């Protein structure tokens, strides 16, 4: 008789499957909470985990119970208004005296929202879901690496949606054969012996009864072997692998002039940090060039771009000219996918805005895959916005968006880099 004992130790991630199932089930509420969290966070903690709060009404589980079907006749105690055959009107909304539990009450009692913590990786995964670099072309397959999901065999753990029925049944069949084959062989021998005794005159009745009891006991043991067990379940396993796709460079241009107050600069930093996290998480070996400008533009490193303080006037064309020079020297358009993201409050010398349009139209837009411009201001749009908006009408690789407050950053970011329909 074979006995199977499971001596596997419980791993720390034993609830991972249930956790992922919960996140998938309530993804809409969680993504909304993640979106709200982006606007509340400071620049330094934008990539940390998050506490997610879900209203209890959204996580209530459906229940099945026996309904009151068929024709029923009841005598309700205390009835002094209705006679047999009368129709009872439905109570008006809110007029019932039920004892249901609400989310709040005048006495201060009620049900709290369900709160749980998501990790940094889960937070970023939800933050950048369904985003990509637009118009990416495979012009040189040796630099940029994307991650592609592929089938990677089978695993013993997973979600119900990934169950492989054939593999699970095959495992079930092997287990049932292993657990019952010796019993079935013994049962066959006992039945043959019983048949021989029954056909032989003068056989001992006690021996026949004992054989029948032994046969019944074996048949009961065989019947107890379950058709399928949790150990039999096999799930399709999925993994991610690197897929070389192309070379790409992202130019980040930010206005740091005196017209950009601290609140405006902070919103611009949040946008660029979102962009930086998205690029470094989604693409490997993608190069980023940082350019800051006031009346003059200069290329800086990542730390200086996000945290350095500068003041002065505004000449936006200086940043566009520097971008064009760097692009010609280091990133030829025949070998690189070129992207640019520019943030400004829209303030610029009036006679410089037409120059910006000319540089974009003649030098940059013909070589870039995508140029995104965000204007962070509560004032009326000025000449720079109007020049860029005019280019948007005639070119499909430039996008212009407006941010008024911190709550607009994440929706605008998703709009700029949403995955395009194939």
Automatic annotation (TrEMBL):
User: What name goes with this protein?
Assistant: UPF0229 protein Shew_1832
- The region called Disordered is annotated at 49-111
Composition-biased stretches, type Basic and acidic residues, lie in 71-92
Q: Which family does it belong to?
A: Belongs to the UPF0229 family.
Using the record, list the residue span of the signal peptide; answer none if the entry has no such feature: none
Which InterPro entries does the UniProt record give? Answer: UPF0229
């Amino acid at each position: 008789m074979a006995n199977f004992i499971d001596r596997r130790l419980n791993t720390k991630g034993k609830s991972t499957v249930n956790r992922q199932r919960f996140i998938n089930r309530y993804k809409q509420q969680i993504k909304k909470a993640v979106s709200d969290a982006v606007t509340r966070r400071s620049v330094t903690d934008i990539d940390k985990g998050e506490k997610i709060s879900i209203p209890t009404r959204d996580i209530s589980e459906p229940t099945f119970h026996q309904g009151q079907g068929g024709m029923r006749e009841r005598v309700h105690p205390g009835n002094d208004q209705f006679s047999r055959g009368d129709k009872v009107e439905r109570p008006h909304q809110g007029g019932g005296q039920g004892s249901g539990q609400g989310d709040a009450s005048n006495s201060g009692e009620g049900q709290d929202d369900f709160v749980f913590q998501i990790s940094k990786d889960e937070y970023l995964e939800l933050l950048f879901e369904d985003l990509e670099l637009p118009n990416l072309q495979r012009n040189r397959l040796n630099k940029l690496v994307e991650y592609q999901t592929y089938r990677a065999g089978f695993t013993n753990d997973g979600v119900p949606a990934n169950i492989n029925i054939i593999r699970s049944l095959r495992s079930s069949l092997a287990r049932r054969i292993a657990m019952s084959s010796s019993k079935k062989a013994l049962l066959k021998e006992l039945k043959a012996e019983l048949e021989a005794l029954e056909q032989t005159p003068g056989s001992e009745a006690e021996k026949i009864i004992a054989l029948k009891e032994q046969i019944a006991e074996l048949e009961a043991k065989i019947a107890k072997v379950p058709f399928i067990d949790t150990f039999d379940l096999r799930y399709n396993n999925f993994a991610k692998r690197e897929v070389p796709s192309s070379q790409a460079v992202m130019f980040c241009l930010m206005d740091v002039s005196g017209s950009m107050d601290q609140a405006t600069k902070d919103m611009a930093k949040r946008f660029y940090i979102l962009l930086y996290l998205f690029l470094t998480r989604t693409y490997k070996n993608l190069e980023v060039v940082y350019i800051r400008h006031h009346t003059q533009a200069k290329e800086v490193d990542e730390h200086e771009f996000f945290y350095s303080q500068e003041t002065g006037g505004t000449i936006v064309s200086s940043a566009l000219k520097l971008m064009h020079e760097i692009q010609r020297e280091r990133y030829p358009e025949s070998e690189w996918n070129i992207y640019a993201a520019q943030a400004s409050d829209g303030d610029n010398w009036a006679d410089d805005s037409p120059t910006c349009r000319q540089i974009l139209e003649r030098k940059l837009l013909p070589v870039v895959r995508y140029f995104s411009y965000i204007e962070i201001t509560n004032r009326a749009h000025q000449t720079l916005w109007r020049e860029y908006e005019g280019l948007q009408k005639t070119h499909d690789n430039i996008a212009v968006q407006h941010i008024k407050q911190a709550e607009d950053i994440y929706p605008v970011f998703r709009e700029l880099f949403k995955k395009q329909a194939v």
